[in-house]
Amino acid sequence: MGADLCHLSIGELGALLREKKVSASEVLEAHLKRVETLDPKVGAFLHVNAEQAMAQARHAQELLDGGRGVTALTGIPVGIKDVIVMDGTPSTAASRILSAFKGTYDATVVRKLHAAGAVCFGKLNMDEFAMGSSTENSSVKKTLNPWDLDCVPGGSSGGSAAAVAAGFCPVSIGSDTGGSIRQPAAFCGVVGLKPTYGRVSRFGVIAFASSLDQLGPFARTVADAAHLLEFMSGFDDLDSTSVDRPVPNYAAAADRGVKGLRLGVPKEYFIDGMDAEVEAAVRGALAELEKQGAKLVEVSLPHTKYAVATYYIVATAEASSNLARYDGVRFGHRAKDPKDIFDLYVRSRGEGFGPEVKRRIMLGTFCLSSGYYDAYYRKAQQLRWLIRQDFLEAFKTCDAIVSPVTPTAAFRFGEKAADPIQMYLSDIFTISCNLAGLPGVSVPCGFTSKSLPVGLQVLARHFAEETLVQVGGAYERATDWHKRRPAL
Amino acid sequence: MEYEAVIGLEVHAQMLTKTKLFCSCSASFGDDPNANTCPICLGFPGVLPKLNRQAVEYAIRTGLALGCRINGKSVFSRKNYFYPDLPKGYQISQYDLPLCSGGNLKARVLGDDGRVAYEKEVRITRIHMEEDAGKSLHEASRDIRSSLIDLNRACTPLMEIVSEPDIRSAREASAYLKELRQVLLYLGVCDGNMEEGSLRCDANVSLRPKGSEKLGTRTETKNVNSFRFLERAIEYEIRRQEMILSTGGTIVQETRLFDANTGETRSMRSKEEAHDYRYFPEPDLLPLVVSEAQISDISARLPELPEAKRQRFISDYSLSDYDAGILSSDKVLASFFEKTAKLCGDAKVAANWIQTEVLCEVKDVETELPKAKVTPETLAALITLIQKGTISGKIAKDVFGDMWTSGKEPEEIVKSKGLVQVSDEGELAKVIDNVIAANAKQVEQYKGGKQSVFGFFVGAVMKATQGKANPAVVNRLLKEKLG
Ligand SMILES: [Zn+2]
How far, in Å, from the CA of B48 to the mean position of ligand 1? Predict the structure, then answer.
């Protein structure tokens, strides 16, 4: 069976496991083998914990053999973004300053996955501390886009997206602070879902911007993403911002169809300078949804033009504070022979953080400093509220909002690395969703002439992840973009 | 020119919760370094704070006791600064929206004679909650200079109680702090141990020309940890500022430290290098919401506070203001008194015995009294023995001494030592006859009108009966016999 196991959905894999046509160990071994042979090309994994994973696979097999406590995830290999802390496993957020750090506890989401019988088998590359849109900021290595090895996989969850696209794991977990799940999903031609803020516990997620970060699944199909989301979601006593409300059976929504659904098309999201092929693919997707009985309505999100600026103030302010704990006193990296404590801080942080992280710490520190707080941070909070209001207003006339995920398909390495502003603008369609705390999904909706994937973004009301699954599922059934595989 | 001191105090009180403010580690003092730590209070990557509800209740209790308004919604903020024993690089505190606002405390300021000279009302600005930092230990004795960090105290819950600058003297400041400490002890929210740092005080001091309304430039003296040091630090700071101002100098706004060895304060850092804390709302915690019902529930369970107890002692037991002040000054002492008074039925006698004999024996009421071998029950039994005439007051003092060291019941001591008072007239008459016969000269003096000799006869009878004679009977018989 071997390599064939690496292109199945978790629905298909789960059926094989439950019917005993294949064992959990065989499934894991097939994926480990593929990672071993092909990841040197892609660079998705930072660390593979084969031994721990084998133990988990054996445990999953016991469950399967016993026929008790078996879930849709039992025996399914899951890749984990390195921003998530796992007990006894390197958890570095792809930063030099944490290069020696091993988790001393499991993040809540890891605990939940273990409880469901999933096999968490490795840590995936990312932009350092989740700051970036191309995974070029990883302090460890580059991850390449499986569709075109000269192109970036997107970021910051580039490793998580590339791993699913390349067949290294059927599903993976990423984090989304300003589009870090949806944008790499679009660039790599997979499904990426960012849940409502508060839906998934952040306990054990190395914080970038606490009020924006949210974990979510990558998968090859909408239903797979929905399955994974169900297991990740729910109230966590350890995370005060997690929300206590029931977790629906998200996957069930995939078959509901879109007949009668009103889909909002924001006029601010179809902008000049947008890649014509991307626009054509997205317009094509909208036409398909209309054909299936959805009604397209124009909506307006008037504060969109402030979103990127607002985001970079809020996110960097929180990041500057969240990253203060990496001071050279603990977690491994410390400058040699410091003169005094100040020297220890300055040089350890100087050596440990990459340029993008430093840029954001400085920006955030500036925005919060006395004399500038009102002009920047307070203003940004006010705008954040207005951006949220825009969405609440739009959702009075529609059930979901559809748009492109990014203005262009995956770009080439180095293309935007020298110009941070250009890089920041590539997140223009994804950022507002985080500021408003909304859920959003990216589903494959076509390819450019250079065979690069294009993504369709669907946004919904708070806690209406089912709507995302419903729209994404309907579109997916009518098309076969998600069935294409990159040649590696 | 005459100057007036303007003083405000910021008091940090560690709350007596079992666990820390944002994790479930023990908040106890004195354990092995870093024994009480977990990923959360160590600030490990990925962890999030979880608010301790007990601490919230304690802070509300304190706010209510000090007449504060409890804010239905308060917000935690991050106070960002680098310090090796601050694990997260920020401290979670409350900033512009604290849990309690406003309030006041009446302090009893002592005069030179040690008696209450006047009452001083000090307004409270706010009470907010925050987490403590850890502790650095610097080792200079090794070859390499090294610093060790103990994070047991990191994340333990503190209340910061900030006063308005209503205080005018060192004595008022220590009176305020004493009263505040008592309130905290009465509420059971803080152990008040200043040596261990459970209660710490920063003093903001400035001077202005007497009669002026404008505030002068202030200095902040950090972490003063005893009443005496507080008085000395403030006195020193007033003198220092007075000297500078009277010679035409200007005060530099700065943070100072009190050196207990020299009795002086010295500069720690100036305003120029003061921190910019970059406060902003803590995104990992939702705003703290407390309902009216919660507040009234806590309010209903508030214990009697020192001031109310003092008033009640005056009205219920007819104690003097002074006696009531002493006996209500400590929760343990107050309950010792009330129990004794109830058991013996004479509050005044109980008050006297406690103030003279009991307080003579204990230096620290809070720690020593609960462990004392004399209890309200045995003390009341002793007083009852006097009331019944079984022993004299004088004998009772000896019995008390025995009780204090042996812990025995007073009846047992009286019986075993044969200390029962002699009231038998026949027996006493014999002794008196002997005394009169043996002291003819003094009889003559007495009969010649020298009344003061009477005491000599009483003393002689007491001596002959080893103090066991009932003085009332002795007095009466002596008067009869001497005519
Ligand atoms: Zn702890």
Answer: 11
Q: Is residue A73 packed enough to be buried (19+ CB in 10 Å), middle (13-18) or exposed (0-12)? A: buried
Exactly one of A95, A156, A160, A432 is catalytic; name it.
Answer: A156
* φ and ψ at residue B226, rounded to 5 degrees: -155, 160
Interface touch A203/B87, C-beta < 8 Å: no
Mean pLDDT score, B199-211: 96
- The DSSP secondary structure of A283-322, one letter per residue, reads HHHHHHHHHTT-EEEEE--GGGGGHHHHHHHHHHHHHHHH
**Are B171 and B119 in contact, with CB atoms under 8 Å apart?**
no
* Residue the block writes with tokens 């203001």: B321
Q: If you compute the radius of gyration of chain A from its CA atoms, what whole number of angstroms results?
A: 21
Q: How far apart are CA B92 and CA B10, in angstroms?
A: 17
3-class DSSP state of B141: coil
- Per-residue pLDDT of B429-449, as tens digits, reads 888 988 888 888 888 888 888
Facing A206 at nearest CB: one of B42, B46, B84: B46
Q: Which residues keep their CB under 5 angstroms from ion ligand 1?
A: B 23, 25, 38, 40-41
d(CA A197, CA A314): 15
Asked whether the predicted pLDDT for residue A3 surpasses 60, the reply is: no
Do the Cβ atoms of A223 and A358 come closer than 8 Å?
no
Which residue type, as a one-letter code, is found at position B283? P
Give the single-character DSSP code of B253.
P
Q: Is A317 on the interface with B (CB under 8 A)?
A: yes
Cα–Cα distances in angstroms (integers) from residue B80 to residues A241, A319, A416, B92, in the given order: 21, 12, 33, 9
* Beta-carbon contacts of residue B106 (< 8 Å; ≥ 6 apart): B119, B120, B121, B122, B179, B307
DSSP characters over A214-282: EEEEEESSHHHHHHHHHHHBS--TT-TTS---PPP-GGGGGGS--TT-EEEEEGGGS-TT--HHHHHHH
- Alpha carbon dihedral A453, A457, A458, A460, in 10-degree steps, equals 140
CA atoms within 13 A on the CB side of B310: 20
Which of chain B's residues have a Cβ under 8 Å away from the Cβ of A340?
none
Report which of A233, A38, A79 is spatially closest to residue A161, judged by C-alpha positions.
Answer: A79
Å from B271 to nearest chain A CA?
A: 14
Strand partners, A444: A455
What ipTM goes with this model?
0.96
Which residues, at least 6 apart from B277, have a Cβ–Cβ distance to it below 8 Å?
A: B79, B80, B81
Indicate yes or no: CB of A240 within 8 angstroms of CB of B50: yes
pLDDT digits 0-9 by tens, B317-349: 999 999 999 999 899 999 999 999 999 999 999
* Cβ A202 vs Cβ B48: under 8 Å: yes
Residue labelled with tokens 């001596």: B463
- Which amino acid is present at A274? M
Whose tokens are 């943070």? That residue is: B255
The residue count of chain A comes to 488
Say yes or no: A197 contacts chain B, CB-CB below 8 A.
no
Q: Which residues pair with A176 in a beta bridge?
A: A214
Global pTM reads 0.91
Nearest residue to B124 (alpha-carbon basis) of B9, B4, B16: B9
Highest-pLDDT range among A423-427, B101-105, B323-327: B101-105
Distance between CA atoms of B441 and B183, rounded to whole angstroms?
63
Cα distance between residue A432 and residue B353, in whole Å:
75
Residue written as token pair 């902003």? B280
What are A355-359's contacts with CB under 8 Å, separation 24+?
Answer: A355/A137, A356/A127, A356/A128, A356/A131, A356/A132, A356/A137, A356/A420, A357/A95, A357/A128, A357/A129, A357/A131, A357/A137, A357/A319, A357/A323, A359/A420
Residues B348, B320: Cα–Cα separation, whole Å: 9
The residues with which B11 forms a beta bridge, in sequence order, are: B161, B201
